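step: validate -> pass
step: tokenize input -> pass
step: predict -> running
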Amino acid sequence: MYIRPRSVAEALSALSTYPSQILSGGTDFFPSLGDRPIRETVVDVSALHELQGIFRATNEMRIGGLTTWTEIIRTPLPRCFDCLKVAAREIGSIQIQNRGTIAGNLCNASPAADGVPPLLALDAEVELTSSEGVRRIPLSEFIVGNRKTLRRADELLTAVVIPDTFRDASSSFVKLGVRRYLVISISMVAAVVLVDGAGCVTAARVTVGSCSAVAQRLRSLEQDLIGMPVSNCDDRVKPHHLSVLSPIDDVRATAAYRREASIRLVQRALQLCT
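step: predict -> pass
step: emit ->
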């Protein structure tokens, strides 16, 4: 069965009634099928225009779940969102950016999802809506494994919420792949750095993707950066700061290469925040 609801309420009713797969931009949905037929009800939420766009709310920014990466690139946003805008430009081709949604990227929960590290660095939360109500979960808790999240079958990811914590911070995103465009990353790093009037770090977030089943914050490094002149942050990065990572060997790179490359990417991301 194929259902294309015209309102969030209609979509939630369908999700609570039928075992369903959600279709939004379709950029991950169809490739994931391979040669398999669709066996569950498909709830196509692409017509829910109320879930599109980026809005200012009290002490936070709200990105509608169906907001595309192209919209994120084109929308004027505070400088702390630079990392997310750069990541958005790295997601597939322009055609993919035009169709792919932020909710789809997070719910697909690929270890190589480009949107996850910058959103983690921005302390993002996801808003999940069902017929029973609305709940918020920190993104750091929402993705629990490779292709696994805490979204219930009757829930729709309606928004990504970013607090004003780092509104005036600088940020960056760097990615390593086997070619420049249309590439699944070997490693990627997002950094958000807030400094005081003297140019010293008062708060920092550094996240690494594609080197674990779930993107990881480098919390020990973040603590070690506090009080450091922002211009010297890259010198502070040591191998032990990346001990939380668990890279694997695959067709793109070895685990050892991923770990070594990630050190360089973290240094480069921090340099870009000066």
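step: describe -> The chain is about 30% helix and 25% strand.
step: cleanup -> pass
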